[in-house]
Design a protein that fits this description.
The protein has 265 residues and is an all-beta fold. Helix content is 0%, strand content 64%.
């Protein structure tokens, strides 16, 4: 239920309830169910400035608008404690990314635990005109989580997260994801993940990713390079390839070839 105050300050409260049940197929295992309650709110405001004189066809710029959106989000979930006997069908997969604050986007429902989290951040957008509409030329989201109740560890604050997307042209895009502690030990590790996508022709594209992970308590340290490519042979068939190289020891960790068939044409 979004609400706007004074045409510049937006508040969006949310609330919900969830229920999960498993029925046992034999008498030696009992049925089990869990219920969770969720409430939260996000508040944000926006500031913008136009740079109409900024034009550069080579980099896809036809005017420029910079939008800054500071925001604060609070999410509270209350649910039953997890028991070792509970089914673990939709489980957590180890990841370096922060969990979503909206339980609807939290797929590992069997490991959903109570949390109380406040997220503070700022979104930056650079918009330009393209195809008679607005095109997001660059996007950056910088945020940090504060934990009143941490569902994973005993943290007070998370790492500082940065997520950046740059899409200047249809055949060129780049991305950057970083996280590192800035208060105490944060989440206790560092990560840097960069990507570059390039299409030298309409039928061929390749992507290069470079990832550094250091100090994660679950995942091994890594210094990896990813090469992805895709060749569109015709309207029905395509061919893809993936190579993953661990730079610390020069190991080719993965080599994958895929054949694609488009049944929609």
């Amino acid at each position: 239920m979004p609400m706007t105050f004074g045409e510049f300050f937006q508040v969006t409260p949310v609330a919900g309830v969830g229920y999960t049940r498993y029925d046992a197929e034999n008498w030696t295992i009992t049925n089990t169910d869990r219920t969770y309650l969720h409430t939260g709110v996000e508040a944000s405001t926006k500031f913008s400035k136009d740079f109409d004189g900024t034009r550069n066809p080579r980099w896809g710029l036809d005017g420029l608008r910079h939008i800054v959106q500071p925001y604060a989000a609070w999410s509270f979930v209350s649910t039953d404690d997890i028991s070792l006997d509970d089914p673990k069908v939709d489980r957590l997969t180890p990841t370096t990314r922060p969990r979503p604050l909206d339980p609807i986007r939290f797929n590992a429902v069997d490991e959903l635990q109570s949390w109380n989290v406040v997220r503070l951040g700022t979104r930056n957008r650079l918009l330009t005109r393209r195809d008679q509409g607005a095109h997001e030329w660059l996007f950056m989201d910088t945020y940090i989580d504060g934990f009143i109740e941490d569902p994973e560890e005993q943290r007070d604050l998370s790492n500082l997260y940065n997520e950046l997307r740059w899409q200047p042209l249809p055949w060129l895009s780049a991305g950057l994801e970083t996280q590192f502690p800035i208060v105490n030990s944060g989440s206790g590790f560092n990560e840097y993940n960069t990507s570059l996508r390039f299409m030298p022709s309409p039928n061929f594209e390749f992507t290069v990713n470079y990832q550094i992970l250091n100090g994660n308590p679950v995942l091994d340290d890594s210094n990896q390079l990813f090469f992805r490519s895709y060749l569109r042979m015709n309207e029905r068939w395509g061919f893809g390839m993936l190579d993953v190289v661990e730079l610390d020891d020069g190991t080719l960790q993965q080599q994958q070839y895929t054949l694609h068939r488009d049944f929609g044409n």
